[in-house]
Design brief:
The protein is an alpha+beta fold and about 450 residues long. The chain has 3 domains: about 140 residues, Apoptosis, Tumor Necrosis Factor Receptor Associated Protein 2, Chain A; about 190 residues, no CATH class; about 60 residues, no CATH class. The strands form 3 sheets. Strands 1-2-9-6-7 form a 5-stranded antiparallel sheet. A hairpin with a 4-residue loop joins β10 and β11. It starts with a strand and ends with a helix.
């Protein structure tokens, strides 16, 4: 089911059409069949809404009910919505309803039509409905976008006003990396240990080893999508286990990307408590206001963590997600560099105080490494929404896809849908040649499933 979204100013204006298959189950049930088990629902759309159809019975008559579901907490502003049930070609309309409703937790999160379509006036009456055994529902949903305050933001706000907890973790992250592995364009990002511990326990277990002045923490991959040095693309999409090389602007605290096989099990369970104080790494371009503000708020030097395996946009977006539960993704580069650049520039204009959109592939990697299933699901859904016939060949024959089975399965399904059109193209022919030449060893498994 595909939903088409059009955002006008601060309003949701959503149109979608979906199919309810095996609609006979709603009307022709045996005496022993439990009607509550006959339920069909769309995927979520908008701010977590979905549409649900279920079987009901009143006075011995079977009905198909149709509801808009706005979630357990409801929605703070009125929602206007309409449902129209029709045949596959749209030539026959079985029902049409519209209403405006304010969803609240007190009133319940479902609202719609309990008797949307009856057996007598719908199923028995329309031969086309019985022959197709399917009901196509066209829905429109309009509502003002409400100010949303995620639970994490509310929790953090409470912490800020009830404690003197400062930002006590500093991440040194870089925006660029060249072919020689040298990092450049450093920037500091800040966070709070308790917040990290609560939102990402695995990251919180990265701890100082005795005698070192920086956390050992290097993500395994660095995605070209989030690096502004295009010449680095061939070198940065690989595993990073060695110590990172640093350019002239690198922070004085060490950037460690070394995998220590001798680290004990106890070390791996260390937390952030009782850290050694470390020398503060300088901000590349601190303003006077920033310097004064930090002097007032932070009385001790924060723990420094040098990130050598994630680019600046990725890590900034990741920390923002930890605090808010919100992440913005940019278009894949395979959809066109101009498209991606224009999207990010436009987002920055309208959201100057938020992280720039990041790569969903980069965020998927971080979510896998740090065991964050919610973030992983968000990134995978975003990746799925951006895959098409035009870019699937580019995406599936990559090292990223080869490393992630779930991604490979998703992209294989999409490639198979379009394989009849793509298999004779010059692009696929070139891939086959590179596989034979051994230039794409990770692509052989994909080709084996296709040929």
């Amino acid at each position: 089911m595909k939903a088409a979204f059009t955002e006008i100013d601060t309003n949701y204006d959503i149109s979608l059409r979906f199919c309810v298959e095996n609609v006979r189950d709603f009307f022709e049930r045996g005496d022993e069949q439990d009607s509550t088990r006959v339920v069909r629902a769309t995927d979520t759309f908008g701010p977590g809404w979905h549409i649900k159809c279920k079987a009901t019975n009143f006075d011995g008559e079977n009905y198909l009910s149709c509801y808009l579901v706005a979630g357990s907490m409801g929605y703070p502003t009125p929602i206007s919505f309409s449902f129209a049930g029709e045949s596959s070609q749209g030539g026959i309309q079985y029902f049409k309803f519209s209403t405006t409703h304010t969803f609240t937790a007190f009133k319940g999160a479902d609202w719609g039509w309990t008797k949307a379509l009856s057996k007598l006036k719908g199923w028995d009456r329309y031969e086309t409905l019985r022959e197709e055994n399917a009901l196509y529902i066209r829905a429109t949903i309009r509502a003002q976008v409400a100010a949303v305050y995620p639970d994490r933001c509310l929790d953090l706000s409470h912490d800020v006003i009830t404690t003197e907890r400062p930002t006590d973790v500093r991440f040194v992250v870089h925006a660029s990396r060249d072919r020689a592995g040298e990092l450049s364009k450093p920037r500091e990002l800040f966070a709070n240990k308790a917040t990290i511990r609560r939102a990402c326990p695995l990251l919180a277990k990265c701890r100082l080893t005795q005698g070192r002045n920086a956390h050992i923490f290097a993500l395994i991959y660095l995605d070209p999508s989030d690096i502004d040095n295009l010449d680095a693309a061939a070198a940065i999409a690989q595993e990073l286990f060695g110590e990172a090389k640093r350019g002239p602007h690198q922070s004085t605290s060490s950037a460690i990307g070394q995998h220590d096989d001798n680290t004990s099990q106890a070390d791996s369970d260390w937390d952030f408590d009782d850290e050694e104080q470390v020398e503060k790494a300088p901000h590349p371009h601190p303003t006077a206001e920033e310097t004064e503000g930090r002097r007032d708020v932070v009385s001790i030097a924060p723990t420094t963590i040098a990130i050598t395996g994630a680019a600046l946009p990725t890590w900034e977006a990741f920390l923002f997600y930890i605090y808010t539960g919100v992440v913005a993704f940019g278009p894949l580069k395979s959809r066109g560099e101009a498209t991606r650049t224009e999207f990010i520039a436009d987002y920055r204009v309208h959201n100057p105080h938020r992280p720039a959109p990041c790569s969903c592939k980069s965020m998927y990697r971080i979510a896998c490494i740090l065991d964050l299933p919610g973030l992983k699901e968000l990134a995978l859904k975003e990746l799925s929404s951006q895959l098409s016939k035009e870019n699937i060949v580019t995406e599936i024959f990559t090292g990223f896809t080869a490393k992630h089975e779930e991604v490979k399965d998703l992209e294989l399904r999409i490639l198979k849908e379009h394989w009849a059109e793509l298999k004779g193209t010059e692009q696929v022919s070139e891939v086959l040649k590179n596989v034979v030449r051994g230039k794409l060893p990770h692509a052989a498994a994909v080709m084996a499933e296709l040929l």
